[in-house]
Design a protein that fits this description.
mainly alpha
Amino acid sequence: MLAQTLAVGIGGAIGAMARFGVGMAVLRVFGTGFPLGIITVNVIGSFLMGLFVVVAAQRGFAHWSPFFMTGVLGGFTTFSAFSLEAYTLYERGDVGQAGLYVGLSVVVSIAALVVGVWLGRSLFA
């Protein structure tokens, strides 16, 4: 358990640094305005999650999942895990649940952010 926890932590640090690096590179190339860096990270992370799921299952690398999926990709973007969960629901035929999961995740997460901003401004502004 401790080894897996350390693997997740080390992977998370690597992923977070990679997210920062990609974000800065995109910012330098395209400038500010539209959050292109976040979209880039989300797309790359989702692609890598899909690729790793298949490779891990086909080649017996599932033992690397805590480090790579939870750690590296979790630090890089949690959107990749969200994408995998949504696709897994869809792939097993739970289309309604997949849609509900996507809708609730987006709407409730944005609503929670709005409440957090409101509360923070109320308490600290």
